[in-house]
Amino acid sequence: DGSAFEERYWSVVNAPILDARGEVAWIIHRVDDVTPLVREHDAGTGGNALARGQHAIIRELRVANEALAQEIAARRRAQEVESRTQAQFRFLFANNPLPMWVYDARTLAFLEVNDAAVATYGYSREEFTGMRIADIRPVEDIEPLVKNVKGPRSAHQIASPWRHRKKDGTVIDV
Fold it and tell me: d(Cα 101, Cα 164) in Å, to the nearest integer?
């Protein structure tokens, strides 16, 4: 009827996975059914079967540990590449001789401006980041701006001529 009790033996293995600094980053926890090995040992038919089974498990864990170490190293390399890419972007953005900014497409708020924008428009960086892109437009240009920003965009869009207003009130064509 399937209700009989069967004695089973389990081996719990916790294998630490070390990071590049040699510190425990992860722990692989696994439970193996070693009932056949224990029965073989108890029957005297394979005194080394349990040891062979343990060695096989250790080999598997070493392989898994090496694979995880390689994955960790690959992730670290990817993070380093990403960090370098971000630093290069920031350098290009900050040092570009043309005014540039990043703004929030939903709120139109300036998030960041480069030094060329500060020099060209006359607003401080703090003033810019307290403004929206509509704030540097003549009043009559705000509605077309909002329509343009909220409308569909292709991956590469060529901007049409716009007018911007500098801090001193001068309107420039860009």
Answer: 13
Pairing verdict, β 24-33 and 10-18: antiparallel
123 within 8 A of 135, measured Cβ to Cβ: no
pLDDT tens digits for the chain (174 residues)?
Answer: 566 778 888 887 777 777 778 887 777 777 778 888 777 766 665 556 556 677 778 788 888 888 888 988 898 899 999 999 999 989 999 999 999 999 998 899 999 999 999 999 999 999 999 999 999 999 999 999 998 888 887 767 777 789 999 999 999 999
Helix, strand, or coil (residue 26): strand
The count of C-alpha atoms lying within 13 angstroms of the C-alpha of 24, restricted to the half-sphere facing its C-beta, is 6
* SS3 state of residue 104: coil
Q: Is the pTM of this model over 0.70?
A: no
Provide the token pair at 169: 């009130």
Q: Quick one: which of 1, 64, 6, 7 has its CA closest to 30?
A: 64
Q: Cα(99)–Cα(122) distance, rounded to whole angstroms?
A: 11
